[in-house]
């Protein structure tokens, strides 16, 4: 759907992007991750042709991107940009027409989305009367009104309460099921785990990691496993001997526990099960993968430290 190739951009000798390349597949939710100031918003603005790159190219559906392709892109910017004096309906109607929809089609889509989000009684309210979360919901509708092939969302969950965060996440999941492509730039790592298929991590203007969510988690795992069991904790610890280290434990009942274990040396998960069988009653055992929050911190901190030292 989208191919970013060797994109670089500087502002007054300040490097915002340095030779960034990646591709977004059709029908996936792609996470664009990085700390503040990493270059994510600059990249999004380049894709939307708000600013122009110094070097590199962008292809949309296989062809070099043109202004016409913007009609097939929906964009929710981090900076909220609604006209405060407009009524809600007129605001959505105005932006729908800008995206190439007829007045009739726009009004039909307004009916659909306002019914779906249960906001019909907002139609005649002015934007300035809305809370931050309510205005955010209107801007989300404006971004998806024309049924874009590619939807780009920059921090879409900011300003939302947990209920509306779940509402938007479900909409994104439905859109992916319909074959839409979504680029999601967010600091909400829980949402990244739940809905993103793949992600790229940008830091200090450069790409430092890319892959599926599972790949990124697996590449940064620490050899930790969890075992839920019945029996004696003393017997469990004795069975571990020198090949494994007990890191943590939770008591579930008088004789039920969840233990977190770290491997030592060349020992494997199968070796762990072998030493435990017969000593305790294993209910479940699984590998512990780091959260995307942990992956984010693990990847960014060394780069930040190196940059600070320079």
Structure description:
It is a single chain. The chain has 310 residues and is of the alpha/beta class. The protein has 2 domains: 2-218, P-loop containing nucleotide triphosphate hydrolases (Rossmann fold); 222-287, BMC (bacterial microcompartment) domain (Alpha-Beta Plaits, 2-Layer Sandwich), CATH 3.30.70.1710. 35% of the residues lie in helices and 29% in strands. It is built from 10 helices and 14 strands. The protein has helices at residues 40-47, 88-98, 103-116, 132-144, 162-177, 189-195, 213-219, 233-240, 269-276, 292-309, and strands spanning 2-11, 14-24, 29-33, 55-60, 63-64, 73-76, 150-154, 181-185, 198-203, 206-212, 224-230, 244-251, 256-263, 281-287. The strands form 3 sheets. A 6-stranded mixed β-sheet has the order 6-7-8-3-9-10, sandwiched between helices. The chain has a 4-stranded antiparallel β-sheet with strand order 2-1-4-5, with helices on one face. A 4-stranded antiparallel β-sheet has the order 12-13-11-14, covered by helices on one side. Helix 5 (162-177) links the parallel strand 7 (150-154) and strand 8 (181-185). Helix 2 crosses helix 3 (103-116). The model has no long low-confidence stretch (mean pLDDT 87).
């Amino acid at each position: 759907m989208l191919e970013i190739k060797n994109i670089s951009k500087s502002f007054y000798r300040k490097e915002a992007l340095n030779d960034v390349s990646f591709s977004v597949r059709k029908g996936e939710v792609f996470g664009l991750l990085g700390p503040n100031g990493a270059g994510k918003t600059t990249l999004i603005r380049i894709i939307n042709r708000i600013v122009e790159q110094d070097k590199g190219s962008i292809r949309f559906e296989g062809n070099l991107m043109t202004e016409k392709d913007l009609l097939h892109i929906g964009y929710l910017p981090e900076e909220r940009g609604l006209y405060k004096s407009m009524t809600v309906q007129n605001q959505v109607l105005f932006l729908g027409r800008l995206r190439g929809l007829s007045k009739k089609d726009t009004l039909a889509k307004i009916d659909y989305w306002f019914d779906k989000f249960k906001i019909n009684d907002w139609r005649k309210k002015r934007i300035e009367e809305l809370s931050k979360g309510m205005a955010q919901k209107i801007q989300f509708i404006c971004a998806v009104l024309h049924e874009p092939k590619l939807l780009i969302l920059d921090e879409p969950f900011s300003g939302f309460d947990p209920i509306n965060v779940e509402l938007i996440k479900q909409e994104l999941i439905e859109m992916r099921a319909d074959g839409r492509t979504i680029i999601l730039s967010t600091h909400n790592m829980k949402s990244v785990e739940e809905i993103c298929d793949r992600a790229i991590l940008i830091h200090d203007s450069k790409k430092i990691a890319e892959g599926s969510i599972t790949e990124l988690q697996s590449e940064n795992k620490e050899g930790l496993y969890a075992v839920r069991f019945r029996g004696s904790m003393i017997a469990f610890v004795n069975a571990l001997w020198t090949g494994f280290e007990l890191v943590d434990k939770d008591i579930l009942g008088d004789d039920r526990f969840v233990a977190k274990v770290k491997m030592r040396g060349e020992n494997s998960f199968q070796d762990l099960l072998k030493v435990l069988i017969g000593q305790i009653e294993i209910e479940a055992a699984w590998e512990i993968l780091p959260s995307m929050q942990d992956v984010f911190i693990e990847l960014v901190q060394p780069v930040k430290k190196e940059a600070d030292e320079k």
